[in-house]
Amino acid sequence: MANTTAAKTSVRDLMHDRFCRADGVMTVDQAIQLLRDEDAYALLVDKRDPDDEYGLVSMADISAKILAVDRAPERVNLFEIMTKPALCVRAGMRPAYCARLLHRFRLGLALVQDADGEVIGLIDHRALVMGLAHPEH
């Protein structure tokens, strides 16, 4: 029998806001410093115009696309390594559906948007799993 509290849990209940907004022309070196200063997990790369899409740079992106291939972070801009368009999920989405979506696209995290399309947080596998372990969230 399913836990009724867990059925009422949404992505909004599990998301976190440990991300920074950045411009795509920022260098990876500058972005790493921003992540350190803000104690953040990822960078939301702002849209260039209202018809554009958000970009996302995770720690895994920096590790795989800069560190692992020995690129100079001061010579690479975020737009070169970002995921764009970034996967966005509704804040009201059920966690199980979000987990399926992340798994299907082999992603570690997604942006969370409110009803107006504003990015209000990030959701990742850790948050989803911890929410499962503590369904009162």
Shape call = globular
The helix/strand order is HHEHEEHHEHEEH
Main-sheet strand order equals 1-2-3
Report the CATH architecture. Roll
Enumerate the spans where pLDDT stays under 50 for 5 or more consecutive residues: 1-5
- What proportion of the residues form beta strands (DSSP E)? 15-25%
Number of helices: 7
- In total, the number of domains comes to 1
What is the alpha-carbon Rg in Å? Answer: 16 Å
CATH superfamily: CBS-domain
Approximately how much helix is present in the residues?
25-40%
User: CATH topology, what is it called?
Assistant: CBS-domain
Structural class: alpha/beta
Task: Give the tally of β-strands.
Answer: 6
| Average pLDDT, all residues | 92
Q: CATH first level: which class?
A: Alpha Beta
Biggest β-sheet: count, sense, barrel? 3 strands, mixed
Give the end-to-end Cα distance, rounded to a whole number of Å: 19 Å
List keywords for this structure.
137 residues; alpha/beta; CBS-domain; three-stranded mixed beta sheet; 38% helix
Structural features, described:
The chain is α/β, with parallel strands linked by helices and 137 residues long. The chain has one domain: CBS-domain. Helix content is 38%, strand content 19%. The protein is built from seven helices and six strands; from the N terminus they run H-H-E-H-E-E-H-H-E-H-E-E-H. The chain has helices at 4-8, 11-14, 28-38, 59-67, 78-81, 95-104, 125-133, and strands spanning 19-22, 42-45, 55-58, 88-90, 109-113, 119-124. The strands form two sheets. A three-stranded mixed beta sheet has the order 1-2-3. Helix 6 links the parallel strand 4 (88-90) and strand 5. The relative contact order is 0.22. Mean pLDDT is 92; it is low at 1-5.
